[in-house]
């Protein structure tokens, strides 16, 4: 069967004019799709389509109707969930188990959440205690056009996270997925139209960041820029998007997973593995730094290695495979260089899974790896590896654990493992991170705000907090005729 041809989805239709490129699977190098690349001019046209749709129809669409369309979209994707899961796996190299049981169902649930949740209201009444006989109404109004720039590692989920709240709040969207992994985002746009979303409300442009992304974020008709990616690129985005507009940045992480001596060691070992090896470590919040109490370090590492030995490498499309591919060749090379450099500088290789004979030829893979005694000055110790590599540090007490956890420029996420919940919460509240799991890792809720401290970003996505960032407020001060304010205020300038 001939691979499908995709293109930017602008104003409710694909625009097939332009340079065509092949999309190749990191699983085995096969051609999985053709994509026509956008230009800066197409990015501008997408913004114009979004602005027109905002003024013409979407800003006037009732909140109840916006909810209904999101719920209908969730139903349509649910009916095609197997197709989405396979496409996401082929495009990203994720295991089919992960896309089937996590990425696609979670995205559908998050769409449904924003369609069902009554937490967000487009207005609320307030009381003016200073002025009897009056009332106030605070309205939560859409901003206009939202430019959403997404990374290559979780394309479907990221599309949902950026699109659903923006649409619910009444904004229109131009989404730029990574040109490496655009396929499910484009399918989402098609299905949104089937769900009844008016043309131009959701547009998807496919192109390189420095070409199409730059055009989007510098377009003065864009009211809000939402970017997820590396800290380096995020800083560049912030400069280019400067001006009187909103910006949300979710950037890199170097997240600690802290295991205390009173933790359930078996459960903690499973959580640590899940925290770093899910998606082969290609998640911003991956728990890439294991901080373990010295009293249980050897026992925990032994249990982790035991579970690593049981991991099943193979073709990610096989439902028995546990190891995802690395999505891009550039990222695979980066992982190799950082690990090799760390080992050369003294890090101890505790375990590296042998996968060479199990994975498909022509694919991009890196073995699940465990490093101890990583010199603190090395790049692997300080910077985001974004791969299946866990580094180990030990501590003696709470104070040292918190100090090590916070000794980083990043602050996206963390995990704390202890059967003493009071202690775990005390430690969690001392960690400089936007999300801290206690006796858990990686689990995400659409009801919870997501974002980072320090160089891991600004602003929040998801949750009521994320929704409100996509709105602007108007205060209506209403005198209902029940109070005479002349003695309070008017008499200062008005004489009867």
From TrEMBL:
Annotated keywords: Oxidoreductase
Keyword check for Oxidoreductase: yes
Aldehyde dehydrogenase domain sequence ranges: 19-475
Catalytic residue positions: 250
GO molecular function (one): oxidoreductase activity, acting on the aldehyde or oxo group of donors, NAD or NADP as acceptor
Subunit structure: Homotetramer.
Family: Belongs to the aldehyde dehydrogenase family.
Name this polypeptide is given: Aldehyde dehydrogenase
Lineage: Archaea, Candidatus Marsarchaeota, Candidatus Marsarchaeota group 2
């Amino acid at each position: 069967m001939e691979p499908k041809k995709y293109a930017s989805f602008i104003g409710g239709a694909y625009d097939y004019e332009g340079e065509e490129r092949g999309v190749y699977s990191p699983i085995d190098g096969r051609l999985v799709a053709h994509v026509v690349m956008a230009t800066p001019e197409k990015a501008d046209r997408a913004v114009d389509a979004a602005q027109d749709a905002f003024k013409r129809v979407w800003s006037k669409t009732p909140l109840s109707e916006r909810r209904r369309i999101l719920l209908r979209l969730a139903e349509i994707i649910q009916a095609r969930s197997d197709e989405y899961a396979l496409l996401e796996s082929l495009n990203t190299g994720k295991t089919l188990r992960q896309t089937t049981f996590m990425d696609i169902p979670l995205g559908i649930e998050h769409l449904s959440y924003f369609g069902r949740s009554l937490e967000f209201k487009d207005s609320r009444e307030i009381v003016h205690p200073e002025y009897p006989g009056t009332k106030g109404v605070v309205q939560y109004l859409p901003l206009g056009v939202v430019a959403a720039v997404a990374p290559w590692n979780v394309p479907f989920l990221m599309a949902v996270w950026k699109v659903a709240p923006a649409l619910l709040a009444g904004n229109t969207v131009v989404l730029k997925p990574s040109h490496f992994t655009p396929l499910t985002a484009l399918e989402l746009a098609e299905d949104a139209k089937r769900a009844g979303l008016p043309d131009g409300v959701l547009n998807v442009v496919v192109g390189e960041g420095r070409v199409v992304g730059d055009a989007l974020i510098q377009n003065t008709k864009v009211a809000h820029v939402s970017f997820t990616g590396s800290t380096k690129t995020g800083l560049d985005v912030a400069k280019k998007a400067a001006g009187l507009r909103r910006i949300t940045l979710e950037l890199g992480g170097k997240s600690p997973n802290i295991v205390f001596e009173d933790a359930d060691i078996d459960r903690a070992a499973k959580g640590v593995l899940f925290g770093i090896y899910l998606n082969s470590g290609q998640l911003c919040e991956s728990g890439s730094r294991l901080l373990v109490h010295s009293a249980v370090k050897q026992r925990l590492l032994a249990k982790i290695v035991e579970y690593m030995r049981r991991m099943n490498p193979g073709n990610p499309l096989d439902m028995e495979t546990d190891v995802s591919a690395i999505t891009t060749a550039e990222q695979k090379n980066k992982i190799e260089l950082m690990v090799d450099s760390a080992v050369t500088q003294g890090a101890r290789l505790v375990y590296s899974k042998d996968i060479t004979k199990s994975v498909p030829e022509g694919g991009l893979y890196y073995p699940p790896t465990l490093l101890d005694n990583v010199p603190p000055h090395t790049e692997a110790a300080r910077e985001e590896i974004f791969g299946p590599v866990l580094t180990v540090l030990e501590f003696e007490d709470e104070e040292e654990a918190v100090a090590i956890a916070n000794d980083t420029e990043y602050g996206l996420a963390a995990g704390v493992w202890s059967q003493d919940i009071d202690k775990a919460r005390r430690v969690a509240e001392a960690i400089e991170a936007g999300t801290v799991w206690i006796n858990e890792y990686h689990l995400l809720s659409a009801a919870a705000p997501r974002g980072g401290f320090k160089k891991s970003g600004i602003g929040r996505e998801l949750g009521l907090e994320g929704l409100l960032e996509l709105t602007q407020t108007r205060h209506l001060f209403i005198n209902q005729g029940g109070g005479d304010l002349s003695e309070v205020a008017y008499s200062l300038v008005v004489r009867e």
